Amino acid sequence: KWLRGLLLGMLWVGAMVLYGILSTLGKIEVLYNGPVLLGYLVITPIVYFLSQFKHGNSLDEFLGNISYGVFLNHFLLIWILEYLGVFKGGATPHHQIVVLGIGIVSFIVGWLSYLLIDKPLRKVRIQFRTEERSLQPTEALALTPVKKA
């Protein structure tokens, strides 16, 4: 367990050093280097912190449930803002504010998409699987229900 913490710590320090080098060289904006490295710097300690708890941690479950929505929505927001000319992916005077805004809005939209789309679909999927299991083997394979004698 200590080895995992050491490796995550080394990853975090390495990402921080790389962030510093790229910032110094003025290459931080190339192909979203900055946001990706910043993501590693923020997420690595969070993952390590959450891994210390037993399963069933509500914060861990909440973040896990919304993570895919956040991932998908942040790209959509970036593309919309780039199209509108608000965000150009490089360093601008208001770059940090826009990136922070993208993160906050992505988090909110990810949470909403989980509540409005993922959670209801999960219930339907579970209900469908439960109904499928309750069928007799011959009924499950037949296109039409088999009449019982």
In words, what does this structure look like?
This protein has 149 residues and is mostly helical. Helix content is 77%, strand content 0%. It has five helices and no strands. It has helices at residues 2-25, 33-51, 58-84, 95-134, 137-141. The longest helix has 40 residues, at 95-134. The model has no long low-confidence stretch (mean pLDDT 76).
The helix fraction, in percent, is: over 70%
What's the overall geometry? flat
Main β sheet profile: none
Number of helices, where a helix is a run of at least 4 consecutive DSSP H or I residues: 5
| Count of extended strands | 0
Distance between the termini: 60 Å
Mean pLDDT: 76
Percent of residues in beta strands? under 5%
Structural class: mainly alpha
Order of helices and strands, N to C? Answer: HHHHH
Q: Which radius of gyration do the C-alpha atoms yield?
A: 22 Å
Q: Low-confidence spans: pLDDT under 50, at least 5 residues?
A: none
Overview in brief:
This protein is an all-alpha fold and 149 residues long.
Protein topology:
Layout: H1 2-25, H2 33-51, H3 58-84, H4 95-134, H5 137-141
